Amino acid sequence: MIGLVQRVREARVDIAGRTVGAIGPGLLVLACAEPADSEAQVDKFVAKLLKLRIFSDDAGKMNRSVQDLDGAGTPGGLLIVSQFTLAADTSGGNRPSFTGAAPAAQGLALYEALLARARAAHPLVQAGEFGADMQVHLVNDGPVTIPLRIT
Q: Any idea which residues carry the catalytic annotation?
């Protein structure tokens, strides 16, 4: 599973002018399933997201996770968006190949598993819509953008 994690002050996903998911401070997660992925990768991905220490502590060091955003136990939000283009292969020419992404049915099943696991483990989870033409709006905090690959 491939991810791109962005620490945000706020983020939202719109589809056809309608907001379908929005968070305040937290993580915007772009996620892509690969053909060899299973629910084991989903479990590892969620565990890593929740424990990734990329929020500042009182000393200004990246030492807090989205589970304890402010040091007082306040969780941040997760906005999880499916993003098959993270599997793009640009080595062969100018038009990317997306054969590295899971087929649509598998990608949807793994995305739904990712959302279910995240919602079971974290109180503030929002999502985009698999396969939709989405507009993602964000205010990147830092900026902090972390690539994440779970094998």
A: 83-85
Say if residue 22's pLDDT is above 90: yes
Type of residue numbered 26: G
Q: State whether residue 80 is helix, strand or coil.
A: strand
Q: How many domains does the chain have?
A: 1
* pLDDT tens, position by position, 92-122: 989 999 999 999 999 999 999 999 999 999 9
Give the predicted TM-score (pTM) of the model: 0.95
Q: In 3D, which of 2, 5, 1, 6 has the Cα closest to residue 142?
A: 6
Give me the domain span that covers residue 31: 2-149
Residue 70 has a pLDDT of: 84
CA distances to 52, 95, 124 from 5, rounded to whole Å, are 10, 25, 16
Q: What is the CATH number of the domain that holds 110?
A: 3.50.80.10
Contacts of 90 (CB under 8 A, 6+ apart): 96, 97
* Cα angle: 99, vertex 104, 109; to 5 degrees: 125
